[in-house]
Amino acid sequence: SSYAQVMEEMWDKGTGLKEHPNVGWFKDAKFGLFIHWGLYSKLAGKWNGKNYYGSGEWIMNQAKIPAAEYAKVASTFNPVNFNADEWAQLASDAGIKYLVITAKHHEGFAMFDSKASDFNIVKATPYGKDPMKALATATAKKNIRFGFYYSQFVDWHEPNGGRNSWDFDESKKNYASYYSQKAIPQLKELLTNYGPLGIVWFDLPGGLTKEETQKLVDSLHALQPQSLFSSRVGQGLGDYKDFGDSEIPDAPVKGAWESIYTHNDSWGYIEHDLNFKSPAAIIQLLAKVASKGGNLMLNVGPDGNGRIPYHSVKYLRETGKWLKKNGEAIYGTTYGFIPQQPWGVTTAKPGKLFLHVFSRPGNGKLLVPGFSNAVKAVYALGNRQSVSWKKAGNDLELQLPAFAQDAPNTVFVVEYTGAQP
Ligand code: JFZ
To answer: Which of 70, 72, 132, 178 is least enclosed by beta carbons within 10 angstroms?
Structure first.
């Protein structure tokens, strides 16, 4: 069976989610910025002189820090270097179209002004301001859609919240009271006080039946019907699909979806984690995810002073430079109808197939197998230089110019006639 048939079968699996009427912008966006920022950023992977590795935002769990002791970190949290306009400018320079930041992670600390819980950045820290308000304004100015991550079930600070068994007896917990007293009121604050949200990014569901989850989703959507909720709200609900961390589906997937990756090895800031993905790796990752029809949301972890790590700033800006020249082959594209090849991947728009060449064949002969449409023109996207080509049966063969030698991703455009295969 042909690739198109195989793909059609895979496609039937789709995301399994109902299509939200407002997913259009999301499907076109392709590149999002994820930000994990909280009290754990201040700890930076260290507790009582011991270094922890993996996920910095999990340190409370890793070190089994008592909730009362962990809460004291707030009294030293003072991110005076935080500058919302700088973050929005960086996102804009990087070619980012949406930004999702942790309003509350598993640690239970609200990085926003909250009446529902005093354990928040305005009330409990010397900083005393609401950085989320500033970010909502700064991103809007740059036309970047804004969204909140909110850990709706896991809350290690609350006696009735999910998953802290080192302080609180799980069997005695009343999840319903946690939801009604903290999670739901805070989600309502987020959906009321920060203008229109592109996304509410839920994570790690629990403690609710399918009916209760549906009720939660409906009551929140009533506040902002246009906002998209991530599939990690649980119970098969949500407006778009999030794959597992650092996961790309094998074949193109129908519907709105996102792959999430973090820039180094951790989501939250860890001082001794310098394993940052290079600009070339990010650029290729973005193309790979787009070639399957999805978005890449790449995470950075600012430190406790409010600074985004040096390498994240630098590499994101370099990614943005590539996107400035080659964005046509990423934004607004659909999956590539030629599957992954030894040389790279493909994306598509009506009448155009984009070849993302990661590694140039030694002799410059690039094979596009199974391309049966009539070709109108082939050219390099960067400088519009035309490329010689010939048809060999159903295959298309290009003779690549020498300049494609060492770029992380040199894009060629094949313009063709007829329906998309
Ligand atoms: C969750 C969080 O626990 C983690 O701290 C981080 O915020 C990450 C983005 O999300 O971790 C998960 C959640 C779901 C999966 C894997 C890790 N999953 O579905 O594979």
So the answer is: 72
* Backbone torsions φ then ψ of 137, nearest 5 degrees: -70, -45
Mutation test residue for ligand 1: of 164, 245, 266, 270, the one with most atoms within 8 Å of CB: 245
Residue type at 49?
A: G
> Residue 253's pLDDT is what?
87
* pLDDT tens sequence across 32-84: 999 999 999 999 999 999 999 889 999 999 999 999 999 999 999 999 999 99
Spans of the chain, pLDDT less than 50: 1-13
Whether residue 267 has its Cβ less than 6 Å from ligand 1? yes
Specify whether the CB–CB gap between 267 and 36 falls below 8 A: yes
Other CB atoms within 10 Å distance of the CB of residue 388: 10
Q: Is the ipTM of this complex over 0.95?
A: yes
Tokens matching residue 96: 């980012």
| CA 102 to ligand 1: nearest atom | 7
In this structure, the dihedral spanned by the alpha carbons of residues 267, 186, 155 and 36, taken in order and rounded to 10 degrees, is: 10
Cα 211 from Cα 217, distance rounded (Å): 10
- Domains, the chain: 13-328 (3.20.20.80), 336-416 (2.60.40.1180)
Helix/strand/coil for 344 = strand
C-alpha separations of 167 from 61, 120, 163, 179 in Å = 11, 20, 10, 19
- Looking at residue 9, its pLDDT comes to 46
pLDDT (0 to 100) of residue 15: 66
Q: Is the CB of 61 under 6 A from ligand 1?
A: no
Query: Which pLDDT belongs to residue 217?
Result: 96
DSSP state string for 377-415: EEEETTT--B-EEEEETTEEEEE--GGGSS-S-EEEEEE
> What is the C-alpha separation between 273 and 268, in angstroms, rounded?
10
* pLDDT of the residue at 18: 78
**What is d(CA 167, CA 65) in angstroms, rounded to the nearest whole number?**
9
Q: What is the pLDDT of residue 10?
A: 41
Instruction: Give per-residue burial for 205-232: e unless 16+ CB within 10 Å, then b.
Output: bebbeeeebeebbeebbeebeebbbbbb
Number of residues that make up the chain: 421
Atom of ligand 1 nearest to the CA of 299: 9
Range list of H helices, 222-370:
279-291, 310-326
pLDDT in tens, 135-164: 999 999 999 999 999 999 999 999 999 999
